[in-house]
Amino acid sequence: MSLFCDGGGDYITPDLLSDLRFLLDRGADACAADAAGRTALHAALLGRGGDCGGGGGDAILWSCLELLMERGADPRIRCRVEFANGGGEAKLTPAGLAERLGKRYIAG
Q1: Domain count, the chain
Q2: Per-residue pLDDT tens digits for 43-80
Q3: Is the dihedral of CA 37, 89, 8, 15 positive or negative?
Q4: Shortest CA distance to 46 belongs to which of 29, 14, 100?
Q5: What is the rounded distance in angstroms from the CA atom of residue 99 to the CA atom of residue 106?
């Protein structure tokens, strides 16, 4: 079961954290990657939809990052494609991506 949301548009909603917890509690792999090697950590770092229907998008993403790390997400998994977001980063790990984006959410 993939936790990565690669569809377009906004996906940061007030229910995102509880939905993520629901999936993880039922066996979703926090390290799962899509065909391009992107993980839920990559997705959270590149989060879209900032206003979250009234604010709090960054706080929700921060909480999702914390939950994923608590559940064993590996910040060293390298993506197999270059990211279009964040300045055309090379094939980065979530930790490397966080550093390039100036986000100190996770350490690799």
Answers
A1: 1
A2: 888 775 443 344 456 788 888 889 999 999 998 888 87
A3: positive
A4: 100
A5: 9
Q: What is the DSSP letter of 39?
A: B
Closest Cα to residue 28, out of 19, 38, 37?
19
Token duo for residue 99: 């550093």
pTM of the complete model: 0.72
State the CATH number of the domain containing residue 39. Answer: 1.25.40.20
Residues 78 and 26: their CA atoms lie apart, in Å, by 25
23: left (phi > 0), else alpha (psi -120 to 50), else beta? alpha
